[in-house]
Structures are given as structure tokens and as C-alpha cells.
Amino acid sequence: MPIRPIIGPDNPVLRRKAKTLDNPNIPALQQLIEDMIETMRAAPGVGLAAPQVAVSQRLAVIEYAEPPENAPEDAEPPEPKLYVIVNPEIVARSEVMVDGTEGCLSLPGYAGNVMRHQAVTVKALNRRGKPIKVKARGWLARIFQHEIDHLDGILYIDRASKVWRVEADEAAADPGLRE
Ligand code: ZN
Question: To which H or E segment does residue 82 belong?
């Protein structure tokens, strides 16, 4: 399972609106999905969209451990949950917006402050082409919004109120930042 190179903004694919997939349950796509999961984990990151590996198709992978609401500070970290989303669409957004820090695997060495909806509902197909609906809040909702933006050629720096450089070890210390 090869790890694929992650492209930066110098590659125009990252800025293109990605194409809708007609039939996601095809062998070629399964290989791409496996490669994307492996590439995301190796980075490491919490999300990766197909345009980031130079494939202009509406597909993203997300892996994030969302702590349950009101979890005590000293609780065991939850198991990360993997989402494969094909042709995702945000069908509901909270009115409440929250500010948070994001980084992007396509823009290594930078972070920025971005306002996002605090909660979103996402409809998509899973990797077998079955419809799924995800209600995400907090950081998970932020990751979904960041990845779905990638499918429209939008980067977090387009929405950020502020962008700054981060040291390599600082970025590595906070895996929640990179998507
Ligand atoms: Zn990104």
C-alpha cells in the first residue's frame, strides 16, 4: 500500500473543484482509499482529501478520536473513528460559530485561526457506496468542514483571520492541527 505524495498549492489540482464520483465501489477507488488512509496516518494527520494527493475527485478520509461530552480530564483517550466520505455534502450547519486553530498537510509549517460552524450534519456515501449521515460537533465538525472545503479548492488560509509559522516539533506535538 503506497503512501502517496501530498501536494502543495503550487499544484493547481489543490485549487480545482473536484469531480463527483458516479460509482465509488470500484477496485481502483478502493486502492485510492487505502492509500489515502495510509498517507493520512503516516503524515500524521486527522483528515486527508483526494485533491491533496492530486486526485480531483470528491472523496476524503477522516480519523479522529472525539472525546465524549463531559468526559473527565483524566479519562482514557477514546478510540479514533475512521470515516470515508464520498461525494459529501453539508446538509445542516449550526448557527453557532467557533474559532479554532487549524493546520493543513498541504501547507506544512503553518497554522491559522479559522471560524467554523460548531456542528454540521454531513451526508455522503461510504466506501461501499452506501448512504451515510454523520452529525459532527466540535473538532470533528471542524475537520469535516476543512476536508469538504478541499473538494471545492478552498484552503483554510482563505478563511483564516490569522496565519502564522509553527516550528516542526510544535506541529508534531498537536496532532489535532493537521488535516
Ligand atoms: Zn487541509
Answer: strand 81-93
Say what the pTM is: 0.92
pLDDT digits (tens, 9 = 90+) for 61-108: 999 987 777 778 778 878 999 999 999 999 999 999 999 999 999 999
Please give the positions annotated as active site. 147
Return d(Cα 69, Cα 84) in angstroms, integer: 23
Paired with 12 in beta bridges are none
Q: What is the distance in A from the centroid of ligand 1 to the CA of 161?
A: 16
Sign of CA dihedral 65, 71, 72, 73: positive
- CA of 14 from ligand 1 middle (Å) equals 10
Question: Whole-angstrom Cα distance, residue 100 to residue 49?
Answer: 20
Show Cβ contacts of residue 97 under 8 Å, excluding neighbours closer than 6 positions. Answer: 115, 116, 117, 118
The C-alpha cell of 51 is what? 485533491
Ordered structural domains, the chain, with CATH: 12-66+73-178 (3.90.45.10)
Residue 17: partners with Cβ closer than 8 Å, 6 or more residues away = 151, 152, 153
Ligand 1 center to 96 CA (angstroms): 22
